[in-house]
Amino acid sequence: MTPRGRNPYECFKSDGHRLLALVSRDLRIVLVAAIFAAASFAGAHPALRSAIALWVS
Fold it and tell me: What stretches pass through the bilayer (predicted)?
């Protein structure tokens, strides 16, 4: 893979590999947000709740 631009997802030669990388990135973001949301609803520390609210917004 030869870097072609500043975006790391431009380095893939195959559109299928690029799509898989983008989908896995998005799934990681959603999973982390879901874990933080579950922690905030489960009676987490108020400082953690405010940090989650700041990060999600």
Answer: 27-48
